[in-house]
Structures are given as structure tokens and as C-alpha cells.
């Protein structure tokens, strides 16, 4: 699990803002319903309607803590400016798709600014589960170059950017580490089983009283040895894959 650091936004701030956003989202949902519309049928559009409130509520939370914080959000302007920290904070709200979370930025803006902080709020369609990730001092090196047709939207290079991540709410887990630990444990368990089984067969071979019995037990021993070697090779292959593979991160939401 990524370590939770102490920073200018904490879990208490996040939970307070989420409760306000949930109230705002519920009000919008009722308004849509009054006009025979469904706010949640399109999470992307719903999140766009909530983005201004997200910026305002977080900026207000920072001011309540004593920070000189202002929010704007107009094109070309920072979502939140924290003057006494000399920081510009970009706020993003996304519902993702399955287990995939498109953590993006505007490449042109980040190129012009040099470095920015990013606050990503991840939510489910029902708007009752959340994760909040604060990234400090991200640069264009933390994102991939925009693909053609992306309108300058860049996908985060998590292998770089996650080193600058503060997990405010929810969990971020390195899948590579989890899988490496799993296969190391599987290999250790296999070695114990192999040692026990082969030792037992070796003992039977030693105690064999007839040529036929010796031949049969020896054949079983060789077959078992090959079977364990095949399993061992397969496990080491999988272990090697996760050791060499780029970091893969799993994000788990928290119910609020």
C-alpha cells in the first residue's frame, strides 16, 4: 500500500468535502428527475456539472484551515491557488471504467506552468464510494505525450507519478509487489511439498524388497520430480514477469 503522508489536505478535509458534494449531487439528481432526466446515466457529464463545486468546496476547506486559497477554474486559470504555499492545484473528478482510472492532465497547460499539484477525486457511478489522491509537483515527465485526437489530454505515467502520490482517501496498491509476494510464497510452499514428497519416495526406494517394486517406485519418483520441476519453472516465469513488468497500480474506493 502507498504510504499515507501528512499534507495540506487530509482525510478529514476530504470527507467533509465529499459530504457537501454528495448533497449537491443529490440536489442535481432531484432537479433532473423533475424533468424526467437521469443525472447518473452519464457519469462523465455528471462529473462535469460537479467539477466547479469540487473546486469551490476544497478551496473553502483550505481557507477554513487558515490557508490563503482562491478558486477560479476558468480556461487557462488554475482551479485553486494556495498563495501562502505558492501552489497551483488542479482538481479532477472521474468515475473511471471498471478498474481503469484515466488520470489525465492538459499537456499544454502543464508544459506552460512547469509543475502543478493535482487532486484526483475518483468515484463510482452511484456517487457513494471514493478515493482521493493528491499529487505534488507533477511535470510533463509524469505524463505520456498526447496521442493524436486526444485534444492535448495526456495520460498519467503512473510508474513516475505514483512516487509523488499522497493517498488521502481510499487505497492505492502496487499490484507488482502483491504478485511478487504471492509467487515467492507459492515457490516456498512448492519446495516444501516437493522435499516432503520426494524424500518419502526416496525412502521407499531404499526399502524396496523386489525389483518390480523398485522399478515402479523409481518411475513414480522420476515423474513426481519432473512434475515439481515443471511447476517450479512456471512459478519462476510468473515471478520474473512481475519483477520486470512496469508497476501496475490498483485503486480501491472507500464508501462514504
What does this structure look like?
By secondary structure, this protein is an alpha+beta fold. The protein has helices at residues 11-34, 43-64, 107-113, 158-161, 175-206, 211-244; strands at residues 69-71, 80-82, 87-94, 104-106, 116-123, 129-138, 153-155, 165-169, 171-174, 249-252, 254-255. The protein has 2 domains: 11-169, ECO RV Endonuclease, Chain A (3-Layer(aba) Sandwich), CATH 3.40.600; 177-246. Strands 1, 2, 3, 5, 6, 8 and 11 form a 7-stranded mixed beta sheet that branches. Strands 4-7 form a two-stranded antiparallel sheet. A two-stranded antiparallel ribbon has the order 9-10. It is elongated. The two termini are 20 Å apart. Mean pLDDT is 90; it is low at 1-5.
User: If helices are DSSP runs of H or I spanning 4 or more residues, what is the number of helices?
Assistant: 6
Strand content: 15-25%
**Would you tell me the structural class of the helices and strands?**
alpha+beta
User: Architecture of the largest domain, according to CATH?
Assistant: 3-Layer(aba) Sandwich
Largest sheet: 7 strands, mixed
The total strand number stands at 11
> What gross morphology would you assign?
elongated
State the helical fraction.
Answer: 40-55%
Q: What order do the SSEs take from the amino end to the carboxyl end, as H and E?
A: HHEEEEHEEEHEEHHEE
